[in-house]
Amino acid sequence: MFDRLRSDVQCILERDPAARSAFEVLTCYPGLHAVVLHRLAHGCWNRGFKWLGRFISHLGRFFTGIEIHPGAKIGERVFFDHAMGTVVGETAEIGDGCTIYQGVTLGGTSLYKGTKRHPTLGRDVVVSAGAKVLGGFEVGDGAKIGSNAVVIKPVPAGATAVGIPARIIPSKKGESADVTEDAKPKFSAYGITQEDDPLSQAMRSLIDSTASQEHQIALLWQAIEKLAEARERDCVPQDAQREEHFQADKLNQLVGK
């Protein structure tokens, strides 16, 4: 028990630069308190003390602002960072090393009892502030859920989900993010970076393509003009585009490149 608590404290010290000491984490971090109370509630729930498990869960919600159903399964080194207003449903499963921020809902879309209604998070998943993950599907190891995203379908390992409804951005390496002790992925606070916005990526691709086309057109007109001069012919129209005017750099700055 104490080894697991020590591991929980250490993971918070590693992921939160505001954490200054183990004593501060033990006394001032509601995410840690919520996890400890959940383990007690989950133990009661599994032993048939359903009401007691729900009551301990209710106390945890009152003191921490984090609502975790006692039936939910939570792995080791799970960090609820701030996490006020977070809700974790009965059949939800959270893998080892996950980080969950404030306002997150791991909810269900079915009213049928006894079914898998809530999501399963793999290892080292980051669920950003305000995200809603709804349904009994899986979110793969190392995946990231962007802030305020609404995820209603499975997310592959290493991928990023952003938007409403969430769009899936595959891993940049194009392969699953299997986490090993020798090669752990770099932790990404709040899940996503500017490079993970699919609309910005699409806009940058269009801008770069347009700039490339204008450059080619300018080169063609310059070549035609030189040929005309060599043959002493005036066959080049006055409005021929001999110079580039497309402001690719400026537009890229506007979309966040």
TrEMBL record:
Record protein name field: serine O-acetyltransferase
Keywords of this entry: Acyltransferase, Amino-acid biosynthesis, Cytoplasm, Repeat, Transferase
A GO CC term attached to the entry: cytoplasm
Annotated EC: 2.3.1.30
Gene3D superfamilies: Hexapeptide repeat proteins (2.160.10.10), serine acetyltransferase, domain 1 (1.10.3130.10)
Molecular function terms, GO-annotated: serine O-acetyltransferase activity
Primary location group: cytoplasm
Reaction it catalyzes: L-serine + acetyl-CoA = O-acetyl-L-serine + CoA
Stated family: Belongs to the transferase hexapeptide repeat family.
Membrane-spanning ranges: none
Pfam families documented for this protein: Hexapep
Family annotation (PANTHER family): SERINE ACETYLTRANSFERASE
GO BP annotation list: cysteine biosynthetic process from serine
The organism's taxonomic lineage, starting at the top: Bacteria, Pseudomonadati, Pseudomonadota, Betaproteobacteria, Burkholderiales
SUPFAM superfamilies: Trimeric LpxA-like enzymes (SSF51161)
Organism: Hydrogenophaga borbori
Xref: InterPro entries: Hexapep, LbH_SAT, Ser_AcTrfase_N_sf, Ser_O-AcTrfase, Serine_acetyltransferase, Trimer_LpxA-like_sf
Subcellular location(s) of the protein: Cytoplasm
Top-tier EC class: transferase
The keyword Amino-acid biosynthesis belongs to this UniProt entry's keyword annotation: yes
